[in-house]
Amino acid sequence: MTQAEFNQFIETTCSATILDADRPFVDQGIDSLGMLTLMVAVEDQLGIELDPEALADGRGSTPSGLLSLIEQSKATV
User: Do you know which Gene3D superfamilies this protein is assigned to (predicted)?
Assistant: First the structure.
């Protein structure tokens, strides 16, 4: 999945506009409930189980960071 495709996935899931893949979700209007919705959608629709520790340490706080975590999760399956 490309960054542009993932940004579209986020926009559709969270009803938000991703302006910069390296900008934190919170700065792009996605709050904690939006993040929870996004995490559930990633796990359900993409079939990826995300590492809670990686999310907690901030590596998934941007669209590009979250896509990187998803790609890492795919590589370990």
Answer: ACP-like
